[in-house]
Amino acid sequence: MQIGARLLEGPGPFLMGVVNVTPDSFSDGGRFAAPEAAVAHARALAIEGADLVDLGGESTRPGAPPIPAAEEIRRVVPVIERLRAGGFTLPISVDTSKGAVARAALAAGADLVNDVTALSDPDLAAAVAGARVPVVLMHTRGTPADMAARADYRDVVAEVVAELGVALARAEAAGVARERVILDPGIGFAKRAEHSVALLGRLGELRALGRPLLVGPSRKSFIGALTGAPVEDRLPGTLAAVAACVLAGVELLRVHDVAAAGQAALVAAAIRGAAAPAGPR
Ligand code: PMM
Prior knowledge:
By secondary structure, the protein is α/β, with parallel strands linked by helices.
């Protein structure tokens, strides 16, 4: 897939490094809220081996309050402008659910839209369709305010596959080319720990959707539920999930700890390659 100036080709895995420009994100809230700190962090992630960076100006943690588009733009756009003015060449993804934010970020030099609501806002769908950029459609239900109460499934994997299929059809109907869509099961979004674990264990079933997959297990609460580890101490659990994703053929991983995830991903990809049946000679 062509993302900005880069062609991400082959099975990957490719790493999306997370830069949250928010005062209240659940894993790294407040650390990179000043534009200079976010710029430095994005550069550091590039040096660690990120293939692209994901900038988010609005926290999506459970219970987070929505913020106005103007405030989100104020947080995100200066970071993109400074990165591009400073010669940052990696693709930049903007993590937003609002059309106005996507338009401003793309105009400032972003290349991809990452939407945790899978284009449920028609204005964002129009912005993505008009700009002809790649888009991540992530599965969730409801809003951060009520998503925990909506984590109710009979078969979480089948329901996520069905609901992502609906999201993909809705995006196409809005004029987004299917070839530009990346799908994400939304680990931790309207999911209890057992739901996130089931999705990670049955990622192969998401292949039925026929699009590249992105998964964001990094530091999420299912790791805390399984291990008791606080959010700042979930790297080992994150790496186990990264390896599981790579073994299942996931193309893109959204992670905070790029260097560590890169090492885990390389080893898992080598094992995956060794496990693949030999082709015809
Ligand atoms: N997780 C978070 C934010 N944005 N986007 C996608 N596509 N997938 C995710 O799993 C995802 C996301 C929340 O994590 P953070 O607050 O630690 O960034």
